[in-house]
Amino acid sequence: MIPALYRSISALTSAGGFVQEGAEDAAQDTHGAEDATHGAQDAAAHAAEEHAEEWGTDVMIHHVVDANYWEFAPFGEIHLPEFPPIHVGGLEIDLSITKHVLFLMFATILTVLTMFMAARASRRLDAGREGPKGILNAIESFYLYLRDDVVMANIGHGGERFVPLVITLFFFILYSNLLGLIPWGATATANIMVTSALAIIALIVVETAGFVALGPAGYMKTIFFLPPGLPGWLKPIMILILAPVELIGKFSKIIALAIRLFANMTAGHLVILALLGLILTYGGPNPVGIIAIVGSLALALMVMFLEIFVAFVQAFIFAMLVSVFIGLIRHAH
After folding, report:
1. Which residue in 73, 174, 242, 250 is deepest, having the highest Cβ count within 10 Å?
2. Does residue 24 belong to any structural domain of this protein?
3. Distance between CA atoms of 112 and 118, rounded to whole angstroms?
4. Which DSSP category does 131 fall into?
5. Of the listed ranges 42-46, 161-165, 277-281, the one predicted with least confidence
6. The whole model's pTM is what?
7. What are the helix (H) ranges across 28-134?
8. Would residue 82 count as lying in a domain?
9. What's residue 243's pLDDT?
10. What is the tens place of the pLDDT at every residue in 66-92?
11. Residue 66, Cβ density class (10 Å: 0-12 exposed, 13-18 middle, ≥19 buried)
12. Mean pLDDT of the chain
C-alpha cells in the first residue's frame, strides 16, 4: 500500500502546486483580484480532473496483480530474474520469478522458521527446561489449538497423520496474507493461481485420504452413491443422476476454497486503494479537502486493521475446511 499512498500524496502535492501557480499568474494579471480567484479555481478544477483520471480501476488493479518487478516507491523498483520458458510438447512452462513467487518464498521461509522454533521449544519443554515464552508461547498455543480443536476434532482417529499438513497450510497462508500488509509487500493469496494450487493440494490430500481409509470399493461409493432400499430397476437411473452430482460436489468444495481466499484478500486491498483514491478526488488545500484527506486515511487505517483480522480468519477457515473434508470422506457411509 506504500506505493499507492505515495502516488496519492504526490498527485495531491502537484495539484496544490497547480492551484498556487494559477493563483499567482492570475494575481499578476491586470484584471485584479477577481481574475486571480477565477484563475485559482480553474487551475484547481483542471488539476482535479487530471489526477482523477490518473486514479482509476487500472491503477488499483496494478497494485494487486502480479508483476516481474518489485516496486519500492519512491525509491524505484527491482526487476526480478526472468528465465526462458521450458516447452514440454505444446505446453509452455515459465519459471521466471515474479513478485508473488518471491513473496511465496518469503512465506515459505517464515513457515519453516516458525516450525523450527516451535520444535526447539517443544524439545526444551520435554527435557524439563523452562517453558516457551513470548512469541514461542503464542506459536505453541496456535499449534495446540489447531491440533486438538481443528484437526483431531474433525478427523478423529488417525487424524494425527494430517496435523503437520494442516498446521503448515495455516501458517503458510497466514504469512502470505500478512506479507501483503507490510510496506512494499505483496499478497500472493490475492492471486487466483496461488489459491487454486493450494486448493488442488487439498483436493489430492482429501481424495487420497478417503481412498486409503475406505479402500477402492468404499471410495467408489462416494461417487456412485445409492440410497438403501431402492428397487433394482431404479438403481441405474439413480446412479446416472447422483454420480454427476457427487463429482460436482467434490470439485465445488475445492473451488470454493480457492475463490473464498482469493476474493477476501483481493477485496480488502481494493477497498484500501479506493479509499486512498478519494484523496485525489476530493483532497486539496482547503477545509473540505483536508477533511477528505484525514477521513480517507482514517478509513483506510481501519480497513487495514480489519485486513489483519481477515488474514487470520481466512487462514483458519482454509485449515478448518481441509480438516472437515478429510474427516467427512474418511468416515463416509
Report:
1. 174
2. no
3. 10
4. P
5. 42-46
6. 0.80
7. 33-54, 57-62, 99-126
8. no
9. 87
10. 888 888 877 888 888 888 888 888 888
11. middle
12. 81
